[in-house]
Amino acid sequence: MKSSFEQNGGTYRQVGDFKIPNLTLPPEEANIRLGKWGMLHKDYLRKHKKVAFTTLLAEGKLWQYLSDINTQAQNMFDTLVEQMKVAEVVTEQLKEENHLEWIHRMQNIEARARTIVNAEVIFS
Predict the structure, then answer these.
(1) pLDDT digits 0-9 by tens, 40-80
(2) Angle between the N-to-C axes of helices 50-58 and 36-48, in degrees from 0 to 180, rounded to the nearest 10
(3) pTM, rounded to two decimals
(4) DSSP summary character for residue 17
(5) Does residue 29 contact residue 60 with C-beta atoms inside 8 Å?
(6) 44-81: buried (b, 16+ CB within 10 Å) or exposed (e) per residue?
(7) Which of 4, 15, 42, 102 has the greatest number of beta carbons closer than 10 A?
């Protein structure tokens, strides 16, 4: 009697007393590289949204989904940083005149932007 995995074209390899499924990523997902946002969201799904994680993985859509989340989060982060720089007048002139102040303010802006992206995209 074949398992449903074998009925759908899956194969196994024997390792000791165990049969291990031969799993590979679909070709369109094999070359996807995830950034920090995609990896953060993957960990969140794996720990807190197990059904969604397993469903995406089983359907072969997990890596594309995570890549899309990574792109969305990075775009949001970049946009927020630029908007906050304008609103708080953090300019190249400030960078030239008082480099340490510029670094302090940029780190503060980036930390706030990360918090927003995490709340709106990554951990939701």
Answers:
(1) 999 999 999 999 999 998 888 899 999 999 999 999 999 99
(2) 110
(3) 0.76
(4) T
(5) yes
(6) bbeeeeeeebeebbeeeebbebbbebbebbbebbeebb
(7) 42
Q: Which 8-state DSSP code applies to residue 121? A: I
Q: Closest by alpha carbon to 35, among 60, 71, 65, 80?
A: 71
Tokens 């190249």, located at residue: 92
**Among 81, 49, 83, residue whose Cα is nearest residue 66:** 49
CA-based nearest residue to 45, from 21, 19, 25, 65: 65
Which residue in 33, 35, 55, 30 sits closest to 45, CA to CA? 55
- What distance in Å separates the CA atoms of residue 61 and residue 28, rounded to the nearest whole number? 10
Structure tokens belonging to residue 82 = 């630029």
- pLDDT tens, position by position, 77-100: 999 999 999 999 999 999 999 999
